Amino acid sequence: AIPRRELAVVQYSSIALILVSMLILVIKIPPKLYFQLWGYGSKWIVPQTKHYSWLKAADVTGVGLDNVVSCPVDEDYRLDADALEKIILDFAKDHTPILGVVAVVGSTEEGAIDPVQKVVALRDKLYNEQGIYFYLHIDAAYGSYARSMYLDEDNNFMPYDQLESVWKKYGVFQGDGEHVSKYVYDVYKAFPEAESITVDPHKMGYVPYAAGGIAIREKRMRDVIGYFPVYVYDKRSGAPATLTPYILEGSKAGATAAAVWTAHRVLPLNVSGYGKLIGRSIEAAQRFYNFLKGLSFNINGTEVEVNPLTDPDFNMVDWTFNIKGNKDLAKMNDLNLKFYQKASFVGGPVYNNDFITSHTDFATDGYGDSPVPYIESLGFSADDYHKETKVGILRACVLTPFLYDEDNFAAYAPKIKSAMEEKLTQILD
Amino acid sequence: AIPRRELAVVQYSSIALILVSMLILVIKIPPKLYFQLWGYGSKWIVPQTKHYSWLKAADVTGVGLDNVVSCPVDEDYRLDADALEKIILDFAKDHTPILGVVAVVGSTEEGAIDPVQKVVALRDKLYNEQGIYFYLHIDAAYGSYARSMYLDEDNNFMPYDQLESVWKKYGVFQGDGEHVSKYVYDVYKAFPEAESITVDPHKMGYVPYAAGGIAIREKRMRDVIGYFPVYVYDKRSGAPATLTPYILEGSKAGATAAAVWTAHRVLPLNVSGYGKLIGRSIEAAQRFYNFLKGLSFNINGTEVEVNPLTDPDFNMVDWTFNIKGNKDLAKMNDLNLKFYQKASFVGGPVYNNDFITSHTDFATDGYGDSPVPYIESLGFSADDYHKETKVGILRACVLTPFLYDEDNFAAYAPKIKSAMEEKLTQILD
């Protein structure tokens, strides 16, 4: 026989367990504790170069900032496909669902073009080998219109080896040489593999604000998000499908759509229209990049170097100024911030300002260690970057198609140089 | 001594309980089960006359449709404050948090004006008696600009007994009599008690789309939702506060704000400007309502009645046509839908159409039994309404200020009547 004392322990502990179980089932576990115990749900994977609105959207929709996962980028600020594979396999291992993966074509701060073709190949591989599939969204808000460079007048995607001759025929570029790498071409070729693509006419479509777009491969997707106002739609009356049910705003000015439609009629979405316009903006950016590469200043004896960030994938050129030999990152950040202030509305009315540009920070919390190679190339260390938590960058989107012309650029270059020199002199004197 | 058999039962049951507890704590409770066990969270209370975007917003933000609670409206389609009190007390009883209460001023389908003053009084009472407080939002997207009728040229809210003489001075109304009830006046007087108010310049501000607004009493509220793009904002540069961080779109055309600013300069937001414009639209609506009240048709021997829904709170007039003596609600719904089809784009190009109007359904799932008094006044029963699940309504927003003039209206009235007659003849013949 078991002693009464031992039995009592068993009885009391079972009563305690019953009470705990009842408590758990009857008293509500606070949502916060629930998520701490069992995790925060499904993941949305974006590159470090993501537009800030991805965070805002995750916050607003209730997906939550904790579920946005940053994928590292390489030294060209392009999504690192190997790092992406590791992230996906880790999530697959512990059965964390993946809401989707975003590849950026024309990143906000660098105009960088992510390797969509590699992401697609990775997805094919993972699907065939392990049955892992993920939703692919291309954030081509900035870069999408450039796809028109690769479409002939019948809107067929052209082979790479025919591009230069067709571009010559349409006068897309002026100079000789390889204007777009096979890498960038392959990115645009892979577009049809994505489930959805952001297309912003108010960026490289050169149409003013209010127009934004998303292309979806499966039209029925929109029915999932459709809300039909009963005082506008009567389905019995056979009202045609409009945007209203599928956009956040609901009602919206038709002028916006009309403006985009008209622009696409005037400039067709192929090599004869937007392709030509955007090709010229790319050539202008390349001229500006080459101009910066060879540039330096002597400001009353102080030598100032100009250090472009990357050979641009598209039409955006980033750079920094640094005093030759300066090893203090804080000092370099200060110089570039002050330059921006003189080259923007911060310094006063801009009507008489001969050089206006924008400024951003690559900060550790968003970019991780991706800026380290650039920082090291300037003579700083990773530690300097971690200590300062950011590197300030000057940034120019070369939207004008007119600087593609060699003579035009040659006329502007000395004016840009002297405007820069004037600002640097004001700062350093 | 306790028999071994009994002890074994106790032991096994305690082991089973340990396993269940461990399962609950270690294996994840699916979110759906979690919510089924412990409820769906906090509630957002809106009247049955809510704009459909309240549902869309709850869905998009992750609040969830299950957390939107519909408060019944009275026979004038105004929020029923007694029903609201009951809803709030029920939630307070089981400690369900209330995210907020919406009162609508100018409902989408009726132009009805909810008793904001009663909601405020209810909140004061509940707070003093039981410490219950709730966030109050006024959805005055449609009705907000009408508040300018009650502000003198120094923008002070005027006493009720001075209104008619001031309105006479500014020529706000043409006819004599009480143009706005003390009830509606008290609603507008209570506006400052709300935490936030929707104001849509693209509605009664007569400014085209793209402008929408929300007025907040506590400016710091916006910091909770602010997202600052690093490539636009550099706080060290002292950039002034703009809308960008606080709106969903982020960047937006300045033309929108400029248009609203200009309109408010041209027509001040008081009795001398918008007050006059909107007063005239209200008088025009009253003329149209009185015109409909006395209207009937004889279509080749078939008598058609016109039955306005309510004496309008604002400038929106709803009505139905019915064949005299018809007791079949489906038949009446069909008549009004067909009338709408002839009085809209559905029937073809509208340029030569002398009467255009809109149509909506009051359906059981959104409106509950609120339309029953109207339906019964037409000779139908609540059962008819439940069987059909809706009553179709014709709806006119009288936006033109010109029909406020007696002679103008008298010139239009026979044309409106004959346009209606023509459509009814086409339908009934």
From TrEMBL, chains A, B:
What GO MF terms are annotated? aromatic-L-amino-acid decarboxylase activity; pyridoxal phosphate binding
**Which GO BP terms sit in this record?**
carboxylic acid metabolic process
Q: Which residues cross the membrane?
A: 7-27
The secretion signal range is none
The L-tyrosine decarboxylase C-terminal domain covers which part of the protein? 284-424
Q: Does the keyword Lyase apply?
A: yes
Listed cofactors? pyridoxal 5'-phosphate
* Keywords annotated in UniProt: Lyase, Membrane, Pyridoxal phosphate, Transmembrane, Transmembrane helix
Sites where N6-(pyridoxal phosphate)lysine occurs are at K203
Spell out the Gene3D superfamilies in the cross-references.
Type I PLP-dependent aspartate aminotransferase-like (Major domain)
List the InterPro entries hit by this protein, alphabetically: GrpII_AminoAcid_Decarb, PyrdxlP-dep_de-COase, PyrdxlP-dep_Trfase, PyrdxlP-dep_Trfase_major, Pyridoxal-P_BS, TyrDC_C
Which family does the record assign? Belongs to the group II decarboxylase family.
List the PANTHER family: PTHR42735, PYRIDOXAL PHOSPHATE-DEPENDENT DECARBOXYLASE FAMILY PROTEIN (PTHR42735:SF4)
Name of the protein? Pyridoxal-dependent decarboxylase
In its UniProt entry, the species of origin is given as: Limosilactobacillus mucosae (Lactobacillus mucosae)
